[in-house]
Design brief:
The protein is mainly alpha-helical. Helix content is 81%, strand content 0%. It has a single domain, classed as MetI-like fold (Orthogonal Bundle). The chain is built from nine helices and no strands. Helix 2 runs antiparallel to helix 3 and helix 2 packs parallel to helix 9. It starts with a helix and ends with a helix.
Length: 219
């Protein structure tokens, strides 16, 4: 084990971690917004839009992120749409994650007790008011666990970004190995980098889940 090589690789991995986190959180944020919109469209069965939302959900969840990235990065320029590779990564991650987030949010919304929705209707709340004051707050709390799991999933999916030459952790590791042939050292650094990112995030999500669970069920 070449300790000197590991030490010298620190700056490269720190920069790659920053890139990975920036793109991951961008993708997670926009996928949540997409999921929120699509989830409500599917729950309220908005005419025409529901069919489009169903099609999007199935397409995003049943095609690999790698194929989506290839289409965005290599396909769109063929019709005159030029995007930076970082933007392509965020768009691809958002497209993939939006489908998963939509299902998580829709599932949480459908778990809201029907009696509370009926009570809201009985006091004259409109559909918008029902969504704002009853359905969304409770549905969101019930979907936090799945949303957190999706966020971790999307963070790990950033490893595919190396396919479009984004200098994420995987791509930096591959480049260092190809230059110095120190596979063990740089693979170890790759694992450590992901552990540094994923373990704190997993613990934070677990903490939020416990707080939400106590708030919902009064444990």
């Amino acid at each position: 084990m070449d300790i000197q090589a590991i030490v010298e690789s620190f700056p490269y991995y720190l920069q790659a971690m920053g890139t990975t986190l920036k793109l991951a959180f961008g993708g997670i944020f926009f996928s949540f917004l997409i999921g929120l919109l699509v989830g409500f469209i599917r729950y309220f069965r908005v005419p025409i839009l529901k069919q489009l939302a169903d099609g999007y959900t199935e397409l995003s969840r049943n095609t690999p992120l790698l194929i989506q990235l290839f289409f965005i990065y290599y396909g769109l320029p063929k019709i005159g749409i030029q995007l930076s590779k970082e933007l392509c990564g965020v768009i691809g991650l958002s497209f993939l994650g939006g489908g998963y987030m939509a299902e998580s949010i829709r599932g949480g919304i459908e778990d809201v007790p029907l009696i509370q929705i009926e009570s809201g209707k009985a006091i004259g709340l409109s559909r918008v008011q029902l969504a704002r004051y009853i359905i969304f707050p409770q549905g969101f709390l019930r979907s936090v666990s799945n949303i957190g799991a999706n966020a971790l999933f999307l963070l790990k999916e950033t490893s595919v970004f190396s396919a479009i030459a984004i200098m994420d952790l995987t791509n930096v590791t591959r480049d260092l190995i190809s230059m110095y042939y120190l596979t063990k050292e740089y693979m170890l650094m790759l694992v450590i980098s992901y552990v540094i990112i994923l373990v704190p995030m997993g613990l934070f999500i677990s903490y939020i889940e416990r707080r939400v669970r106590y708030g919902v069920f009064g444990d």
